[in-house]
Specification:
- The complex is a heterodimer.
- Chain A has helices at 22-28, 80-96, 103-111, 148-153, 192-196, 205-211, 216-230; strands spanning 4-9, 12-17, 52-55, 62-63, 74-76, 136-138, 164-166, 173-175, 202-204.
- Chain A is α+β, with helices and mostly antiparallel strands.
- The longest helix of chain A is centred in the middle third of the chain and has 17 residues, at 80-96.
- The N and C termini of chain A lie far apart (49 Å).
- Helices cover 43% and strands 13% of the residues of chain B.
- Chain B has five domains: 2-60, no CATH class; 72-139, Glutaredoxin; 156-382, Rossmann fold; 398-474, Ubiquitin-like (UB roll); 479-561, Up-down Bundle (de novo design (two linked rop proteins)).
- Chain B has helices at 2-13, 21-32, 37-47, 51-60, 80-83, 87-97, 140-144, 173-178, 184-203, 215-224, 245-252, 254-268, 282-297, 328-335, 364-376, 378-382, 415-421, 455-460, 479-493, 499-516, 524-538, 542-546, 549-557; strands spanning 72-77, 104-105, 111-116, 128-130, 133-135, 154-156, 231-236, 272-277, 313-318, 359-363, 393-399, 405-409, 431-436, 442-444, 469-474.
- The interface between A and B is large, with 53 and 47 residues.
Amino acid sequence: MSDKIILTIDGQEIQAPQDSTIQQVLESINKPAPLICAHEATTPEGLCRQCVVEVEGWRVLAPSCVTKINEGMVIHTASERVIRSRRTILEMLNASVDLSEAPELQEQMDEFGADRERFPHAKTREQEVKDDNPFFVRDYEKCLMCWRCVQACGDDIQYTYSISVGGRGFESKISTFFDSPMPETSCVFCGNCVAVCPTNALKSKTEFFMEQGLDYDEIRREKRAEKKKMGGGK
Amino acid sequence: MQEETFKDYLGKIAPRGRTMLLPALLEAQSVFGYISKEIATEIGEALKVPFADISGVIEFYSMLFAEPTGETIIRVCTSPSCSARGGKDVHQQILTELDLLKDGATADGKYFVEHVQCLGLCDKAPSALVNEISLGEITSEKVFDPQDEVKTNIYAKDPVITKRIGKVDPYSLNDYLAQEGFLSFPNALQIGPEKMIECMADSGILGRGGASFPTKMKWEGAANAEGEQKYIVCNADEAEPGTFKDRIILENDPFTVLEGMLIGGYAIGASKGYIYVRGEYPKVQKTFQAAIETAREAGYLGENILGSDFDFDIELRSGAGAYICGEETALFESIEGKRGFPRLKPPFPTTHGLFQKPTVINNVETFANISLLFRIGVDAYRSYGTEKSSGPWLFSVSGDIAKPGIYEITSPTTLRELLEQAGGMRDEKNLQAILLGGAAGKFVHPDQLDVRLTQEDARAAGLTLGSGAVVVLSEDVNLKETLADLGHFFAHESCGKCYPCQLGTQRQAEILDRNLAGSPLNGDFSRLEDVGWTMTDASLCGLGQTAASAVLSAMEHFPEQFGAEK
């Protein structure tokens, strides 16, 4: 069924099933490209470009997660262009977003020699935590716009469509209808968005309270009071 | 009253669903001055669009507002051509006169002022759009008493594409017919789709939207693609700073573009065409809508056109302020009622285009060339231009030049000769640089003027003609300011989808601002290089891939403009 084709990765000749993406082949030889936006539960959109590799003869770098392999492709996973892009993406991201609770990103910054202070005086996504429901908080200062929460809320998991990508360019953000608090949207508090968030921008209320030093009884009281305020329906 | 009329309108469009989202939002914006939560709710319910998505769409397009604006909306252009000719000063004067500290509405709700990116009036810089009236050579007086009087000059030794301009009434089908109009489509009918595509291949015609992609490849791909429903789309989202040729064609000779679309529809087997006109071109929209209706009445659109078994109709869609929607797949998303995010490619539009159906999307000038080709034939068409850049080519010339306007070139011409045709430098100033190909193009050094304006020569010189924008910058222009303007342009227009562009355009603008302010940081040169090459190499679409093109070329030719140590 699946015909094999031959390609070259970092000088090594590889046989791989025809319909594979570059990333699938890289995984099969234990050399996966680094990923930021991808998640097994959500549709790849090729947003972060962290998985780019250099394909000989191509004008631009190819995102491994969504690029299908071709016969005779010659791929370089650690060329100067690849490393520069990966390092710079991390440096630009770290200048904009609070990645302190994203251990995988911290590891990548070490791996690619990213200078955490590369862009001084850069505009950041600094903003107040949105705390408007008993189940989770939204700390968008930590949001790196991977879209996973929007995808989980929509076609990939829940079909609820409470959130969308808003704004544009650097000012992009995850937003609700006219910025409504979550309880006023179609949200059913399924928690799928929290589960797929890579940076703790979405955090369960219990975890949020624990970080503030509340004990079990205090957390229970707080959450009960908030649920009462919300009207109990949900 | 208004409320009721709007409800009727929504009722009428509701069966078409989400594709009507942008038209509905634009209608609401025009009727109510902004889109309130209540109106957005009604729209969402009527078109069955999730509410959160409606906010997402409103926030994406800069001509849509969720807050009240003003009775008169004044949009002042501050992109490079206008900025170089005082656009920012006039913008400031207008704010001062209206007692505004920054862009926004006056307290009495009479005026709303904002500075915007290119309005396609570059030859009349500085320019503004006051409600639906385009203004050139603006002063603050002109803006408060707007008169529709912009008239672009057309220069052609041997007018071919531009030959009807100024000689026909754009609203008159009879004028068009009297000037060899609707001669091409009957020729196409006669030879049939297969021969038509051969003809396209033989003509060597290249797309005029900026990428110079062989048009025949698109047509062939879509003609061979499986599927009953196919589409022809005309990309009239001209927004590349310094480019205004598509506006000129559409305002003056709309039927030629309409006929080109008709020919394309017949070649690939499409029964429906869309033309997507940028929101900043209200006059184009009005002219082309009239052309559609006139053509329909005369039987050039509709069923069994000219007695054939071919049915075809065209729908006009308005953009709403988003440069990215000139990217073909972003344009499809926009027609589908979504944020204008470019799609991953493959799959390509020829098999998965508008509504995921096989689609050919070509630029306005390309369709005008198609009309021409099927009227005069391959040999005559090839008598213009060169072997590899066949046919006539339009250039939009603006900036510090004596005779700004549209230049039609039918035989090989160097950049130096073009500048001479255009009367040389304005006020006999010295040339500092030319921005060739618009914001997505590159700076040309005065040493490079002998390059011929063909695809092959430009490429060999490491340049790009892009959409044919030639922005002439004299010694008086502060190049650092031009660079900062370009930085702001891309930061404003990045859609935000992929990280290199979303973050890179912002970082690039910050560094260029510091450079302009005379306070660069050590290492800014290499920061700009890393940001620039990362955007060029790793971005998802053409916007990000060219967002650093001009800056990187300036770093090569004018390193002294970047003060900091490496």
